[in-house]
Structure formats: structure tokens, C-alpha cells
Amino acid sequence: MAYSDKVVEHAENPRNVGTLDKSDPTVGTGLVGAPACGDVMRLQIKVGEGGVIEDAKFKTFGCGSAIASSSLATEWLKGKTLDEAEQIKNGDIVTELNLPPVKIHCSVLAEDAIKSAIDDYRKKQAAKRAST
Amino acid sequence: MDPFATLGLPRRYALDLAVAEKAHRELSRALHPDRYAQAGASERRDALSRAVAVNEAFRTVRDPVSRAEALMTLLGIAVGDGHEPKADPAFLMDMLEQREALAEARASRNAVAIADLRDALRATELGAQAELAAGFDSGRAAELVGKLGELRFYRRFIDEAQAILDDLSDCASTA
Question: pLDDT by residue (tens digit) across B101-138?
Fold first, then answer.
């Protein structure tokens, strides 16, 4: 199957690959998997003052489209507020990367990972507030 | 289409591969175009399409993942994208750690470590297959969709580990 140029570019030069300290209360971690294909994706955000995402990292074990989807997602996340980040939809990723229909689930996985990272961050913050 | 019926096999997850191979071989022989050289055009076409169906059925039942998918579909259980439960977080964490270990072993070109990881996952895969076999036999197929998902994660990992090993040995032999 032919990948679009943008997918190849991200898959060969993925941005923001790496790990943030998941025990840091300002870090949210999203861990998602695609049971239909066996891809695993971890996406992390570090949230600074005013709820702005300062840093985003990912690690994806899967096909080129899954790597490109998560790489693009981390690029988009940096500098966004959590509310803005929540507005990122898998359709935006599909459009930007020109993903074919059989690879749409990769973008769904990336959207899930973003939501799950935000959710994890908010849970940590709520737990912190509850304990103080 | 029922691949088990096509091959004359019982509709079960537990599969005796030798029996399936024999059924495939015998049906393929019986449907071989040479046997239909004197037959009419429609009979020849019919034999050919049955031979294609037999091959496809064999490919389906031979693979542990597609065999489970076929059985679930026959039982009216939806599988595939959007129909399956999200993987358990602890399971995903474990898979991610195994993937990271594989990536490290690959980076250090440690063929022994890669083979160990592959073999450990193969053992886990066999365990999952045994669970599927028992579950299907006792009519609990609907509870097994998550287990089928796990099987795909294992398969993906094992295929990748094998591909890395093949790659390493190719490099070694041409070096």
C-alpha cells in the first residue's frame, strides 16, 4: 500500500519520540491499543501554568500510519490548552496525513491517546486537590 | 461462508492441523482442473470456484486469529474495528514493556534476547489459544472477544520479533 508523503515523512523522522516521567503530577499519560491490529501507543503531555501543554512525547509500536498519527498529534498538542487539545479530532489527522480508509483506525487510536492522556492528567490534579 | 463446512471439519476452535491439511489436500486433488478436462464448461467453472473456496477456507482455519474470527462470525458475534472492547490498561502496559525490550534488543543486535522474547510470547500465545479452545467448546464465545484481541497483539509481536531475527541473520550472512 502506498503511504502519503506526509506519512512517510513523519514515520521516518518522527517528532517527539520519548518518555516523560509518568509519576510527575503535571504529566498525563495515555496508553491505548488497537485490538483489531495489535498496535500499541503511549502519548504523554506535560501541562504548565494556565493549563497549557508545554511538552508532548509519544512512543508507538505499530505501522507507519500509527507512528505518523501520534507524531503529528504531539506536534499539534504543544502550546495548546487542554480545552483546545480536546478539540483535536481523528478526522483532522486523516485530512492532514491523507490517510486511506484502511488506516483511519490509526488516527482514531491517536485521538484516543490524546483523550486518555488529558483524562489521566485531570485525574491526577483532582487527586492532588483532594489530598490538600 | 463456513470454512469448517467447506473442508468437512468440525466447527471447533481446537484444530488438528494434520487433519485440516489432509482435508485440504484431498479436496484440492479431487477438484484439480486435470480431473475436469473432459467436463463441460459450467462444471469446470464450478470445480475451479470450489477449489478456490477450499484454499481460502484452509488459510482461514490454519491461522489461529482468523480461525477465531471465523468462528465468532458464524456465531453471530461481531469482530473487527469498532466492535471489540478496548484492551485492558495493565495488558497494554505489559505489551508496551515487551515492545520496549524488543526495541532495545534490536538496537544492541542481541539475537538471543530477541529469540527469548519471541519464545516467551509464543508460550503466552499458546496459553491464550488453549483458553479460546476451552471457551468456544463450553459456549462462552461471546466472552472471548477480548482474548481474540490479545491474540492479535501477541501475533503482531511475534511476527515483528521474527522479522528482526531474519533481518539480523541476513546481515550476518552477507557480512
Answer: 999 999 999 999 999 999 999 999 999 999 999 999 99
Residues B96 and B162 in one domain: yes
Residue B67 located in a structural domain: no
| Distance (Å, whole) CA A82 – CA A117 | 10
- Among A34, A37, A40, A104, the one annotated catalytic: A37
Q: Give the model confidence (pLDDT) of A59-95 as tens digits.
A: 999 888 999 999 999 999 999 999 999 999 999 999 9
Q: Which residue out of B77, B93, B147 would a mutagenesis test of the A interface target, given it has the greatest number of A Cβ atoms within 10 Å? A: B93
**Which residue among the candidates A93, A106, A110, A118 is catalytic per the annotation?**
A106
Q: Are residues B114 and B154 in the same domain?
A: yes
SS3 breakdown of chain B: % helix, strand, coil, rounded to 5?
80, 0, 20
Provide the domain count of chain B.
2
CATH number at residue B13: 1.10.287.110
**Residues B50 and B104 occupy one common structural domain:** no
B132, B146 Cβ separation under 8 angstroms: no
Cα–Cα distance measured from residue B23 to residue B5, given in angstroms and rounded to the nearest whole number = 11
SS (H, E, C) chain A: CCCCHHHHHHHHCCCCECCCCCCCCCEEEEEEEECCCCEEEEEEEEECHHHEEEEEEEEEECCHHHHHHHHHHHHHHCCCEHHHHHCCCHHHHHHHHCCCHHHHHHHHHHHHHHHHHHHHHHHHHHHHHHHC
- State whether B41 and B107 are in the same domain: no
Range of the domain at B9: 3-62
Q: Classify burial at B121, counting beta carbons within 10 Å of its beta carbon; exposed 0-12, middle 13-18, buried 19 or more.
A: buried
Question: To the nearest whole angstrom, how far is the Cα of A80 from the nearest Cα of chain B?
Answer: 26
